[in-house]
Every structure is written in structure tokens, then in C-alpha cells.
Design goal:
Elements lengths: L7 H12 L6 E4 L6 H9 L4 E5 L9 H15 L10 H12 L5 E5 L5 H5 L5 E4 L4
Parallel strand pairs: 1-4, 2-3
The chain binds adenosine-5'-triphosphate and magnesium ion.
The site of adenosine-5'-triphosphate has 15 residues, from helix 2.
Length: 132
């Protein structure tokens, strides 16, 4: 992988949020290939890190294949067995158990935008990423 360049301001902002020692939701947004995933990966280096990536939109992608992929990724990064569930709530409960074991960075990558959540002000903050 190429050496990581720049983004000192963004890394400092993430570090500042982490110091709050309470759960933080950060949305990293920006155009394709701008460096969203890499930024989070770099920040998470040496820290407990659970990453999940949604499946690409395709005719065979359904809510259930997304849930199965989430369960697969959860099992591959924890001691949990792979489960099958048709309930996102049950799957997130499993993630909650992992999160409650101590500080962890959770990345939900490649998820479709949810403008209603962003616009409603319910989210902690948006993190627009522009060119380095
Ligand atoms: N700060 C950086 N220094 C060096 N290389 C970088 C940096 N940021 C991103 N890259 C490289 O640029 C490429 C694209 O980065 P990345 O996959 O993080 O973008 P992205 O915004 O997540 O893209 P997508 O919208 O497709 O998910 C990768 O090869 C990554 O390693
Ligand atoms: Mg990405």
C-alpha cells in the first residue's frame, strides 16, 4: 500500500473526538476515491477495529444478503460464531456486545447514503473530506 500522506487535520479531529471517551458517530463523506476508507483505516491502526462493508448494489443484492455479509464479517473479526438472522436489530445487538468490551472503532463502509438521518440533525456530525 502507498505511504499515507497528509490528512493531519482530519486525524487530529478524529483523535479529539476519541478523547471524549464516549460513543461518537462520525460520517465521512466525499467523492469517490478521495480517501475516506483509508483515513479511517489509518486512524484505526494499532487500535481495536471492526470493519464492515456493504455489498455493492446489484440485482442479486438484497437486504438478506447484506445481513449475511454483515454476520460473516462480524464472525471473521471476533470470537462470535457466524449466525443467520433476518433481523438487523439482532445482528446489531451482537455488535453491541463486542463494543461494550472496551474501546473500539467500528467502520460501516460502503453503505448507501441515508439523507433523512443526515438532514434531521440526529447525527453527531458530518465529516466532509476534500482533496488533500
Ligand atoms: N492520504 C492518503 N495518502 C496516500 N494514499 C491515499 C490517501 N488517501 C487515499 N489514498 C489511496 O487512494 C486510494 C483511494 O482511497 P480510498 O479507497 O480510501 O478512497 P474512498 O474515498 O474510500 O473511495 P470509495 O468512494 O471508492 O470508497 C487508495 O488506493 C488509497 O490507498
Ligand atoms: Mg471507501
Amino acid at each position: 500500500m502507498s505511504p499515507f500522506i497528509g490528512r493531519a487535520g482530519e486525524l487530529a479531529e478524529l483523535a479529539r473526538l476519541r478523547e471524549a471517551r464516549q460513543a461518537q458517530l462520525v460520517i465521512v463523506e466525499g467523492r469517490r476515491r478521495i480517501g475516506k476508507s483509508r483515513l479511517v483505516g489509518e486512524f484505526a491502526r494499532g487500535r481495536r477495529f471492526l470493519q464492515f462493508a456493504g455489498l455493492a448494489r446489484a440485482p442479486q443484492t438484497t437486504a438478506q444478503t447484506q445481513r449475511d455479509e454483515f454476520a460473516r464479517m462480524l464472525a471473521s473479526q471476533t470470537d462470535l460464531p457466524k449466525v443467520s438472522s433476518d433481523d438487523w436489530g439482532a445482528l446489531f445487538q451482537l455488535l453491541c456486545r463486542e463494543v461494550s468490551r472496551g474501546a473500539v472503532i467500528v467502520l460501516l463502509d460502503e453503505i448507501s447514503p441515508c439523507p433523512s438521518a443526515i438532514d434531521s440533525g440526529r447525527t453527531r456530525r458530518a465529516f466532509p473530506l476534500t482533496r488533500n
